[in-house]
Each structure stands twice: as structure tokens, then as C-alpha cells.
Amino acid sequence: MPTPEEDAEINRGIAADPDNPEWTSEDMARARPFPELVAQKRMGRPPKENPKEQVSVRYDADILAAFRATGEGWQTRMNDALRTYLAEHPLEEAHGQ
């Protein structure tokens, strides 16, 4: 625990900090709980128009090694390769759902 002298020094530092003024009763009246603020404002990145879906899939080790060997962005290139395959080999409804 700080001594009374240390406590007084801490309080003087707080009072002198222009970036952290002491709250007034008006400030306290305007304050809202954090969950209330989060509900009003979406945090983080804006949602993507076409978001990717996370799945767990098993591929042969040599296939993964080949894509990983191409360096950073290999997952995107793998996705593009699958997209190209689908464009060149349209799936019949019987193979779908």
C-alpha cells in the first residue's frame, strides 16, 4: 500500500493529467455499461460480402506440400484451384445435395 505521501503524489499526478480529467456528475450520467455500447456499435472489421466458411478437411500430404511450397497465400491458391476445377467440371445435381 502506498504511504500517505505517495498517495498524495499519485493524486497530484492524476489531477495534472489533461488526458484523464476527473469525471463530473454529468459525465457519470452519460456513462453506459460496456455491453450496451457494444450492442450499438459493431466492433472489428466490417462483414465481408462473401465470407469464407471454416471447415475441417483432410488432404493427401503431397497435395498440401505442393501448395505450401508456393509460399504465403497457398490457401488462397488452393481455393482458386478448386474454383477453376468447378468451372471446368460443372457438378451435376445428383452429386450435390
Automatic annotation (TrEMBL):
Domain of life: Bacteria
Pfam families: BrnA_antitoxin
Disordered: region residues: 1-31, 37-56
Protein name: BrnA antitoxin of type II toxin-antitoxin system
Lineage of the species this protein comes from: Bacteria, Pseudomonadati, Pseudomonadota, Betaproteobacteria, Burkholderiales
